[in-house]
């Protein structure tokens, strides 16, 4: 469908792509991966026709449509949301205009037997069929479904786009793009401005309704769920794998290992040959063999090992000074702007050492709560910050707040104090800003590099409460993994505002959901929280489905008084529905059993520890382990309670 042929790109004598060839087929879902600066965004721009390559070309049939969502774009703010999104169907209005023109031309023609008259009829027929096909779907229903899927409320549809933040306006552009249903969809970091629920909706849309997709994303769960092919850009070359990202990582490691083994074997062969030549070079009796080995050596095609990026981000948060037992206590905390209530009645306590996540749709108050904790905005209720709490805050727009006109070194030099100023070069080197990179101006850095630079500023002073608002935006996967490990190793308290499921998995032990003006606590990790939400929605669906079905199919009946008995029509459940229901109940029952097994195992470990205490052992690490096990038991009990409730609801 789209053929990339002998593509080459150079910037200031630096080769970005070197004679690249590949094909995008219909229904391909491609993840374009590579480290920051490898050329992923440039590749999308070239396919979209927005940038010309140095050599080669992108070939595609004339009737192929391409839709492109860049990371940043200028957005028109003169219309309402619904008016802006309706532009996705502007091509239908154009076709109606063309049809009207053809009708007018046909009315004036009298050469009924000519070939050109027949050609005009054929064009009208083809255009009429295209319009009928395009209009066969309910446009208004599609618009509503897409906007609500991306997180908009129906009350937002008639608001002007100027009332929305940049992230929400990017969603409007994404909605327009999805509604046009292009043959090839190019998406550059589409999840940066989406919440978890919207990301899951987009995953479903791309896998079921989109045609060919090429996307750049650092959200591992997202690209794993969407893509079936991975193209890695590395050192000007590409490596094409017909698998999703997780499988690609394994295959790539195997490829590098195989190359390394072949390279080492060849190097040994070359060394042995060179040693033979050197030893017998001047012996007349061996001259024939020596000449033969020299020719053999010249014919060897040297194996090259793909260069592996060995630069490594050395990220470690300073030891946290000890704070009080409860760094954050919220009692009946609320925040409103005029008549608009963001949230109210928030009651929660965050203990020292806990790592928690704030999740929910954009605009539900996650960042607002962070600002309340930081004391940046007024609020209702009582919000206590514990004794000796020192907060380190990474704001969502931290990278954009950097001064673009100064260098990387000056950015850190201006905020560093005391002895740390003598170690600025070392710190920058640990964050991959060593050598000449430290003298670059901030404005030429990529989004990921700016985020890393903003992170350095956070590390200059020891803190015991880290508040990170979307810290992974623009970070590549390797850097995200390093940041995740650094947060795991941090011995203080952490509040994470993030929509990245893979990043939060295994990192947080408690989730606070913001939505509908309330804040709800869920013990357990991010996937336990998502599973609970999914099952809760499924339970609600099971409760509502029979009633909805009956209301739709039953003839209108005369109301029956309460004293009369009126047997209602029984809904016949199909075999497939029954099997699906049994499968859901079986899975819920398995969750309960797994939770019970986990509780039993943890209780046994606690009992063994307590026996050791009774025997007189008093090592500090045993008490730490005991506290950790009690926390695990608390979480496991919560998971069991939720699973039991869900099973009871399904079985009833």
Distance between the termini: 52 Å
Give the structural class: alpha/beta
Strand content: 15-25%
Helical fraction: 40-55%
Strand runs, count: 18
Radius of gyration: 31 Å
Whole-number mean pLDDT: 80
* Residue windows where pLDDT falls under 50 for at least 5 positions: 535-572
Question: Quick one: biggest sheet?
Answer: 6 strands, mixed
- SS field, number of helical segments: 19
| Strand order in the sheet with the most strands | 5-6-7-3-8-9
Shape: globular
Question: TL;DR of this structure?
Answer:
By secondary structure, the protein is α/β, with parallel strands linked by helices. The chain contains 19 helices and 18 strands.
In words, what does this structure look like?
With 652 residues, this protein is α/β, with parallel strands linked by helices. It has helices at 40-48, 81-85, 90-108, 115-134, 139-149, 166-179, 196-208, 220-226, 245-280, 287-299, 366-374, 408-413, 424-430, 447-459, 477-489, 501-504, 526-553, 575-614, 620-651; strands spanning 2-11, 14-24, 29-33, 55-59, 66-69, 184-188, 212-216, 229-234, 237-241, 328-337, 340-350, 355-360, 380-385, 391-394, 465-469, 493-497, 510-515, 518-523. It has a 6-stranded mixed beta sheet, with helices on both faces. The protein has a 6-stranded mixed beta sheet with strand order 14-15-16-12-17-18, sandwiched between helices. The protein has a 3-stranded antiparallel beta sheet with strand order 2-1-4, with no helix packed on it. Helix 15 (477-489) links the parallel strand 15 and strand 16 (493-497). Helix 9 runs antiparallel to helix 10, helix 17 runs parallel beside helix 19 and helix 18 (575-614) packs antiparallel against helix 19. It is globular, with a radius of gyration of 31 Å. Mean pLDDT is 80; it is low at 535-572.
């Amino acid at each position: 469908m789209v053929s990339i042929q002998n593509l080459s790109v150079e910037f200031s004598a630096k080769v970005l792509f070197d004679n690249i060839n590949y094909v995008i087929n219909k229904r391909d879902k491609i993840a374009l991966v590579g480290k920051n600066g490898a050329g992923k965004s440039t590749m999308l721009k070239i396919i979209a026709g927005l940038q010309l390559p140095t050599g080669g070309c992108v070939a595609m049939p004339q009737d192929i449509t391409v839709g492109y969502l860049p990371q940043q774009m200028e957005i028109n703010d003169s219309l309402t949301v619904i008016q802006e999104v309706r532009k996705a169907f502007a091509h239908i209005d154009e076709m109606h205009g063309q049809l009207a023109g053809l009708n007018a031309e046909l009315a004036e023609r009298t050469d009924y037997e000519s070939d050109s008259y027949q050609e005009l009829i054929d064009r009208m027929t083809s255009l009429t069929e295209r319009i009928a096909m395009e209009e066969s779907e309910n446009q208004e229903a599609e618009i509503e479904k897409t906007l609500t899927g991306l997180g908009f409320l129906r009350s937002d549809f008639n608001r002007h786009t100027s009332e929305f933040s940049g992230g929400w306006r990017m969603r409007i552009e994404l909605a327009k793009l999805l509604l046009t249903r292009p043959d090839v969809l190019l998406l550059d970091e589409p999840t940066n401005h989406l919440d978890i629920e919207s990301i899951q909706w987009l995953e479903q849309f791309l896998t079921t309704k989109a045609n060919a997709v090429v996307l750049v994303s650092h959200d591992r769960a997202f690209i794993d769920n969407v893509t079936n092919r991975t193209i890695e850009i590395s050192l000007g070359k590409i490596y094409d794998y017909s698998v999703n990202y997780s499988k690609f990582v394994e295959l790539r490691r195997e490829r590098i290992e195989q190359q390394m083994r072949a390279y080492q074997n060849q190097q040994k062969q070359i060394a042995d040959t060179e040693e033979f030549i050197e030893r017998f070079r001047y012996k007349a009796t061996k001259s024939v063999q020596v000449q033969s080995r020299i020719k053999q050596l010249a014919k060897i095609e040297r194996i090259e090992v793909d260069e592996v990026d060995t630069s490594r981000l050395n990220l470690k948060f300073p030891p946290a000074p000890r704070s009080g037992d409860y760094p954050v206590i919220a009692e009946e905390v609320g925040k409103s702007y005029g008549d608009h209530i963001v949230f109210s009645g928030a009651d929660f306590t965050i203990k020292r050492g806990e790592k928690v996540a704030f999740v929910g749709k954009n605009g539900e108050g996650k960042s607002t709560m962070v600002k309340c904790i930081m004391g940046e905005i007024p609020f209702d209720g009582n919000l206590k910050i514990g004794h000796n709490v020192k907060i380190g805050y990474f704001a969502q727009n931290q990278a954009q707040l950097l001064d673009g006109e100064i260098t990387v070194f000056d950015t850190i030099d201006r905020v560093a104090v005391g002895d740390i100023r003598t170690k600025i070069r070392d710190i920058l080197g640990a964050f991959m800003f060593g050598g000449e990179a430290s003298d670059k101006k901030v404005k030429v850095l990529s989004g990921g590099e700016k985020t890393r630079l903003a992170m350095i500023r956070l590390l200059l002073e020891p803190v015991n409460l880290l508040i990170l608002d979307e810290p992974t935006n623009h970070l590549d996967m390797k850097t995200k993994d390093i940041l995740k490990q650094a947060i795991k190793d941090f011995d203080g308290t952490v509040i994470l505002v993030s929509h990245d499921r893979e990043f939060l998995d295994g990192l947080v032990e408690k989730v606070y959901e913001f939505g509908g003006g309330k804040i709800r606590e869920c013990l357990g990790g991010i996937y336990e929280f998502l599973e609970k939400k999914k099952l809760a929605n499924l339970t609600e669906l099971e409760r509502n489905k029979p009633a909805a079905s009956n209301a739709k199919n039953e003839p209108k009946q005369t109301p029956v008084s309460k004293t009369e008995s009126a047997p209602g029509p029984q809904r016949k459940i199909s075999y497939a529905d029954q099997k699906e229901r049994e499968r859901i109940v079986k899975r819920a029952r398995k969750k309960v059993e797994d939770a019970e097994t986990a509780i039993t195992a943890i209780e046994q470990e606690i009992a063994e520890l307590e026996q050791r205490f009774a025997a007189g052992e008093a090592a500090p690490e045993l008490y730490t382990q005991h506290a950790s096990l009690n926390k695990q038991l608390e979480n496991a009990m919560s998971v069991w309670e939720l699973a039991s409730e869900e099973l009871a609801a399904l079985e009833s």
